[in-house]
Design brief:
single chain; mainly alpha; 6 helices; 0% strand; elongated; NIBAN protein; Niban-like; Niban_1/2/3_dom
Length: 154
Amino acid sequence: AAVSEPAQKCCTENIQPFLTSILEELMGPVSSAFTEVRSLFDKEVNEIIQDFQKTNDITKLKENVDQLMNLPFNSVKMEPCYLKVNLLQELLQDLKSRFKVYHIDFVIQRTQNFMQELMENAVYTFEQLFSPSRQADSAKVATTIEKVKLRVLK
């Protein structure tokens, strides 16, 4: 009871007025990073489509889809996504001094974990939606892949 009122007053006067601007500032790099994840998924699936259209090889298609399933764990391909969120390091340094925000690395790491999880979900959903269509007419496979990709990106 003795701490509640001063703490409430401190939050109301010193933190709450800045929350909106802080969230807007932080959402720039976070949003950019998640957009990069989306773009990477889109690019990888487009490469699968193009490769299949050139070769019309179902075995190669299966290999490519299997490789896509490993995308979230491919640190080289995911690195550009992770770099986008590293901009938080600079933004959070300012917050650290103004609001005593600690564990900046934890915030960045958790954001990167969410990015990896998002990619895992995207490739898993792609595989689940596309799997029944693998046996379809090879002329329709590229179109099916495109439709599944668009569905996942939605």
